[in-house]
What does this fold into?
Amino acid sequence: MQRHWLVTLQNISSSGRSWDADVPKALLQDETCGSVNVLPGLTGDVHWRLELTRVAKFFHLSGDWKAGLMRDCSRCNAEFEWSTTGKTERFFQFGSPIKEKGDEQDSDEEDERAYDFIAKPGDINLLDVLREDVWLAWKADVICSDSCKGLCQGCGVNLNTDTCQCEQDDSNNPFAALRSLKLDG
It folds into this structure.
């Protein structure tokens, strides 16, 4: 794995560090690079803008990313490229989440944040952070387009690319009787 994506928090200066890079698809799909599940179906590199700042004893990691993945449409079952974007937002702190007797929080603002507690020196694999964020943005049902017609309920043909040859039986339709109604206009 490239050392570029391994960060040690203890070495971060007060001015912080920032990235604006394309994370290689090969790294995100390499099982030996990190512990979070790899991202299947990536269509290319993932663009990631990221900033890591140090605020007193805390570290704030924030940014945004954009990725393309091959998915199957939930309506027509055709494979398509799903473009998705997301945000990265993490707070890190050295130590343990277990409080000692007599320990008090410094402020109410700290109570509202969810911190990832990490042992010194604070090694973070940024590839794992990105993989987690993409997995969290994953939607179970995605469609190839808003105009997707889906599959025919009778024969299963993709109505976006083919014409259905099924005979339409409207006899069970409660509005079928309206077809025989003669309207004078």
User: Anything to note?
Assistant: The chain has a mean pLDDT of 86. The chain has three helices and seven strands.
